[in-house]
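Standup notes
- DV: blocked on the single-chain target, sequence here:
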Amino acid sequence: LTGTVYYRLRITNRSGAVEYSPVVVTGPGRNINGASIPSTVRNNRLLVTFYEPYTTLRLVTPQGQTLFTRNVEGMTGVNEITLPTVPAGVYVVHLTGKGRQFSGRIVITR
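- DV (later): unblocked, structure below
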């Protein structure tokens, strides 16, 4: 993606009531997290954009079990990382580096 991107989530609770999250603006020069990841992953291909250096990427279940670890030291810009085949669902991607951490939720679809 190039330019400014605006994200806003539509949240439906169990009773059917709908809320909207605050708008998040991202794009070149706007990322303060050091990395960005898409929210949906298909075909086991995760695209990670590194704005700062990290050393380790982990794929973790919501219960905290690490399913996959990959050395990402030296990666910059956009990188495609092939994840193992896991059941469709929600997972967390953790990035760690020297004095920095980043976590983001992803949905793996089939």
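- Follow-up: The first strand starts at residue 5 and ends at 7.
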